[in-house]
């Protein structure tokens, strides 16, 4: 059996999004170790083996799921990923303007984080609080000033606006999340924490 293309792309996207962390103190071989670990290859410590009950090899999907779960645990400990409703949210701790954030998330195979319910909002807020900085969301002002929508053009089914927001009246086309998890409309040229969803 093989790893599903969706799961493979999700893992690959998160890994490439987090690559800049290597330059900020993560051991240089960390990500090569992850890929070797996922594929059952060898690392500098020798071949990786997974203990399987009764000495059986077990199902390859089960083995990969277990390996992925362990790696997600490591990334959670490093405060690089959170999860909600089947989505994985990730940050490298970098900051950028809105367009650069869009581009970096797309290059990683994901999209800018766009909460569609309170659980997803909390998952993104975790990073905003951890890094003590605001983050752009995948929400923009529509052609009607003061009305906002998801980047794909769909109507907002969930919002968490700060008191008296949105207030830009056509002059603030992007949306940022405050450290308390509430939203504010904002100009798109400020540097904010990059948070992507996969």
Question: Any key phrases for this structure?
Answer:
four-stranded antiparallel sheet; 32% helix; 5 helices; 12 strands; single chain; 198 residues; alpha+beta
Strand content: 15-25%
Rg, Cα atoms, Å: 19 Å
Q: List how many beta strands DSSP finds.
A: 12
Net shape: elongated
Query: Helical amount among residues, as a percent range?
Result: 25-40%
Kindly report the spatial arrangement of strands forming the biggest sheet: 3-4-12-6
**Content-based structural category:** alpha+beta
Structural overview:
With 198 residues, the chain is of the alpha+beta class. The protein has 5 helices and 12 strands. The protein has helices spanning 5-17, 30-39, 60-77, 98-107, 118-130, and strands at 42-43, 46-47, 81-84, 87-90, 95-96, 111-112, 135-141, 148-150, 174-177, 183-186, 192-193, 196-197. The protein has a 4-stranded antiparallel sheet, sandwiched between helices. The chain has a 4-stranded antiparallel sheet with strand order 8-7-9-10. The protein has a two-stranded antiparallel ribbon with strand order 1-2. β1 (42-43) and β2 form a beta hairpin. α2 runs antiparallel to α3. The radius of gyration is 19 Å and the shape is elongated. The two termini are 23 Å apart. Residues 25-35, 42-50 and 52-57 have low confidence and may be disordered.
């Amino acid at each position: 059996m093989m790893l599903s293309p969706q799961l493979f792309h999700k893992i690959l996207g998160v890994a490439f999004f987090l690559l800049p962390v290597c330059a900020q103190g993560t051991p240089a071989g960390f990500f090569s170790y992850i890929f070797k670990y996922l594929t059952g290859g060898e690392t500098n410590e020798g071949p990786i083996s997974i203990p399987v009950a009764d000495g059986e090899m077990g199902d390859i999907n089960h083995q990969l799921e277990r390996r992925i779960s362990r790696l997600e645990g490591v990334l959670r400990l490093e405060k690089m990923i959170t999860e909600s409703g089947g989505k994985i949210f990730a940050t490298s701790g970098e900051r950028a303007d809105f367009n650069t954030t869009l581009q970096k998330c797309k290059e990683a195979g994901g999209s800018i984080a766009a909460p569609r319910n309170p659980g997803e909002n909390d998952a993104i807020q975790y990073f905003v609080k951890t890094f003590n900085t605001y983050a752009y969301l995948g929400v923009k002002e529509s052609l009607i000033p003061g009305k906002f929508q998801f980047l794909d053009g769909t109507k907002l089914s969930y919002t968490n606006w700060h008191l008296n927001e949105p207030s830009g009246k056509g002059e603030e086309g992007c949306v940022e999340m405050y450290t308390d998890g509430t939203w504010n409309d904002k100009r798109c040229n400020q540097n904010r924490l990059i948070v992507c969803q996969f």
